[in-house]
Amino acid sequence: MTETVHLTINGLTVETTRGATVLDAAGAIGIDIPTLCYDPRCAPNGLCRMCVVEATGARLLQAACVTRAVEGMTITTESPRITRARRTVLEMLAASTDLSETPDALAQIAETGADIARFAGGRERRPPVVADNPMFVRDYAKCILCWRCVQVCAEDAQYAFAINFDGRGFDTQIATFFGKPLPETTCVFCGQCVGVCPSGALKPLRAWELEHPDGPAA
Amino acid sequence: MVTPDRITTTTCPFCGVGCKLQLHIKDDAIYQVTSPSDAVVNHGNLCVKGRFGTDFIHHRKRVTTPLIRRQPQTPGGRTQAFDRAAWREATWDEALELVTDRLTGIYAKHGPDGLAAFSCAKATNEDNYLLQKLFRALFRTNNIDHCTRLCHAGSVVALMDALGSAAMSNTAAEVALSDVFIVTGSNTAETHPIIALQMKAAVRKRGAKLIVIDPRRIEMVDYAALWLPLRPGTDVPVFSAIAHVIARDGLANNGFIEARTEGYAEFLASLGPFTPEYAESVSGVDRRLIVEAARMYAGAANASIYWALGIPEHTHGTDNAASLIHLALMTGQIGRPGTGLNPLRGQNNVQGASDCGAMPWHYPGYQSVTDEAVAQMFDRAWNVEPGGLNRARGLSTTEIVGAIGATVRGLYVMGENPMMSEPNLNHARHQFEQLEFLVAQDLFMNETAAFADVFLPAASFAEKDGTFTNTDRRVQRVRQAIPLRGNARADWTIVCDLALRIEARLGRPTAGWAYAHPSEVMAEIAQVLPDYAGIRYERLEGEGLQTPVDDTSHPGTPFLFADAFPRGRGLFRPLEYIPAVEPTDETYPLILTTGRVLEHWHGGSITRNSRLDELFPEALMELNPVDAATTGVADGQPVRVSSRRGTITLRAKVTDKTIAGVVFIPFHFVEAAANLLTLDDVDPRAKIPEYKACAVRVEPLQEAARPSKRGRR
Amino acid sequence: MVPPPIRVDANARPGHNTFVMTNPEPRRSQLLPALLAAQAADGWISEAAAGRIAAGLGVPLADVHGVISFYDLLRATPGPEVVHHVCVDPACALAGSAGLRQKLLAAGADVRDSPCPGLCNRAPATLIETRGVLTAAEPDARDHVDGDVRWLTALCGRGRPASLAEYVASGGMRAYERALREPGQQVIDEIRKGGLAGRGGAGFATAAKWEAVAAAQGPAKYVVVNADESEPGTFKDRILLEQDPWRPLEGALLAAYAVGANRVYIYIRAEYPLALARTRGAVDVLRMAGYLGPNAFGSGFSIEIEVRSGAGAYICGEETALIESIEGKRGFPRLKPPFPVTHGLFGAPTVVNNVETLAAAQALLERGAEAYCAYGTLKSPGPKLFCLSGDVARPGLYEMPFGISLGELLERAGGVNGHLQALLVGGAAGALVGPEALGTRLSMEDMRAAGLPLGSGVVMVFNRTRDLGEPIRRIARFFAHESCGKCYPCQLGTQRQTEILERAAAGAAMPGDRQRLLDVGWTMTDASLCGLGQTAASVTLSALKRWPELFPND
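Structure tokens for the assembled complex are given below, as produced in the milestone run.
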């Protein structure tokens, strides 16, 4: 028997099932909390913090995608504090990463009025394009480190475990074992990673070739 | 960033899983394939072939204009011509008139027995239905079959015998509800990748217990609670021993046996000799594993069995499948979600091609050609004079090949490549050389088409509309995404055009070929195929429908046999152990088993003309380290492999993926065609060849070894 | 049963991938020990060694790569025979780390900048890495230990470690033996009466934590001792483990007994090689003496302690990241809820406690809650360890009752060298305060009321000759280096915060930089996933308020 839970979001009462997240509950009543790293096919991790909300009782902002609705919870999805956090994250991200093919980020940048040049001049993440196989290209200059590719290669879908992280902090990158070319890893080129990538960092070779008709991929 | 001109939703043309594809089109070419996360079959997941392997459609080697062989071919003197210089381009008119001439000529001289057709398990239901309609209604022959003969024919015959129905009893996704499931004769991770994902999730996330019964240490073994590595061909002893233990330990479901089956007593008596000790002695499987497997399967609340061609592709393939069916019947693990007997169909539309009657012994819907009432119904449906349709069973593909020169003189091959997929290729090739007339309707000048007199260029799946029926009986839409390439035509339009010409030549009243759109073909199918009675294109828009669909408001059928089997009670049949036909000996000391790899498809027509070939560019023979040591072969070394029938040369991959005594060769590579080695002995009832076991010799050749750098096992 | 240690081929030739797995349990939890052992054998972790470890433990290759690349001290490429890790954090900077660095470089040494190795009281500090293994520099140097209470530090500060015999003679292990004869709940009740709160910085009521795990259901429960002490300015746990490991170990045994755990993991940062060696030795001695094992003192209580080494990651001091590290993964903090008390190590109910907390628990249980509460304040009873460093006469470890003021503490440490400009309280995750804070009482409630972080008890002193911009920048660099990279605010914000501060120092501040600092700082504080990000701007923001002149004007 599914237990129901009642909470208040922006003054509206929502009834939802126990175990649902605040993101789900809000979505059910038409409140679209913005997300960037979240994907229904992957376990949510609360990485990007676009979906942060205020919850009474919580000192700090909470990520809606991983916060379970609890009976009596009161949630606010818009506030100056929330806007500041979202906008600043977007501004910093825009200075680190090529967001030109991340529609969700571009939409949020417009929505929050983020100034994408605000942190210009700082370090960028511009690793060289990796084109080590006949199927798809990895352009990590566009990678927003949403983790989806690592997750679908692991237990969210394929159980191939061909990619993971390299390094830590700002310099984190997605990588293979000792940087080996994908054909020398456990990758089976299922392309689940390409299918979930929100930023165009992973792209079919054919699509890449259409975009770069003059040059080789790498 | 490329933006698509359009995105067309269709169904994958590769395997029987039937994933939903979204083809992204720019300038009439596919540049990207995605899949929606809410697709009920695959939830947005794809494999390398569906995701990245549709480039064959645009390959420069694609034939897009009708071709006629310059040099007339004669029986006994027929040659294979890959070089385009040996062909001349023709109009459709000329080509189809030539085909009409020659086919009707043979028909006039030799009657229905003189003609045969190989239909296409990759083509749509509509394509298949119309081809079998043409040959039956116009040429009055039942000599029509397709590659199911080489694939699951043994499973189909056994299931029809025992239950009266030959499809997967449950939906693949129901593995999520199984507590225990057996995977046997199926390298699921490479051949049904998306089903494998669901199996892996069931094990890792829901704690399901997997039992793998296979001669190879396939990837699914990494997820298995038990692995029974049996010697190829010893399935009947192993599964019968499991049945023996179930009975012996009181684990049988007597209520179910009583209420839903017949023949148990005799069957039970026959199990006496199949002790775990006996099974161990013939199969090499530790008896304790057999006992444990029996207890796990029988003791589970919900248990299911999934199998692929390791079971039916034997001279006793029907018996192999029967030994699986017995397990489900004696434990009642059927007729409920999460249970069942689930033969995983290989081709994207082998289920549909079979359903739609591209079979020598059955009309659409598995209705027997020898049944007078059925035959009369089809006489009427196809405007054939009463008693006109042939009331005798036709020849299967293996029989057709054998009959060339004797009775069969003209052969129509639609989308098949028997010159790669037939067993004992030297013999098959010799037979093909005896043909008077050969038509190839295909995408590429493959090994079979190169033998033909006429090449009819067909449309790929992306260039036509129609339906495919996947392995769990889901009829799904195929939608045209790009214009027909060059002068290619959709198979069904070719068949209709040809049929009208033949009718005119033969002076027959028309059987009916005036379809404006494939949906009208399906409307006709629905009238003659009871399980498809409620299928209409409008109803297929979302996620398709799983047959049986009894009428236009019926929602489809996820799992079968809840209350009864189509034949009434499930039938037990005593079995004997018949070993594989060709034992090993001193000259040929190793067992060869054949199969597939993830990146390639069957005869290679499609995948060797795709970037997929770059991922797996050459044939590799799997050789166990023990055998490598005995034969003096290093990883990556070229070897000569010989059987009594032929010889090939390829590189060895030394791996423990195959067990000692068994080598594995995939059959995709023409330069090292595995089927040159295989034997064409067939199961007496299913007529399916023993691809999974023959005897070979391996000899190392000179040339420095080149160890494989491939990352996955 | 403790799995036998990973054995290394003693006859191996150096540099020839000599690592040999003799205990290939397919358990991911052995990954970090295996990698450390491989590095200890060969000086680095080659691709081949990593591959063998992956195969032996059943861990995917890419995951092994991910783990190697996460931790500072794991090397995937061969390096120099000897590397000097010179601490560049504030206390050592004050003591002349720059000069030390120069000297070493001039002498041709291979030098690496190191984050705080917990030797702030003996600044400037260096660790020596020889063929991939860290050794303590100056192991015999004396730590200054003093204070008005000497319960936790009774046997510390004597320039040598205590033996088990000494510890028992001074009253040790009696609380444990007594507890074994009573129900575990009584231990928890006594802890509750004593009002013990966590000493790692969060200040969570210890009894509540132990109660939750005691009440939880499950086939296994664990106690994890957090000895990853990496907060710049902190060295209390190092001193405890180096000189009196018995006390925190007894505390861990008491905790395990109280909650029904049969296994204790103590995770000690790799930069504490002496603490690692001495704690491992102590555990072996305890086992031989019958305090550990399948049947401790015939009580029926089965308990084992496994000592684990970190590999260079400050984030692994966060309790869930620490758990991830023990499990053989990258030190990514987990989302909370759920909390370790219900879903901790290997998904089981787990108590995670700081070393000092367990030492304090031992002291409380040995002497009784009443005696314990005789010290400190009402809401912060008992003694607390404070780490004094920087411009103070006697840097060292001070054990004082909660409630003394900052000024009193400084006096106890001999006063400021020079004139007081600022104090860093709480560590890098703390705050910079000025002399006006001297009257603030060092208790949890008083510090909270003053809006100041007590943290782990760091008090670092800066006199008026110091440019406060330096420690502020150094702390920003510290966080950028230590950010795990999981959540965006911290992954990006620690980097941007550092850039803005550094360009200001180079005279290249841009218009709007002050507001940038505020936005970045508050975004990290408000929206980060874990405590590291949430406190990464704490010093900067406190300094912006108190010393605005240090920052660019917008």
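Chain C touches chain A through 48 residues (CB under 8 Å). The first strand of chain C starts at residue 82 and ends at 87. Further analysis is deferred to the final report.
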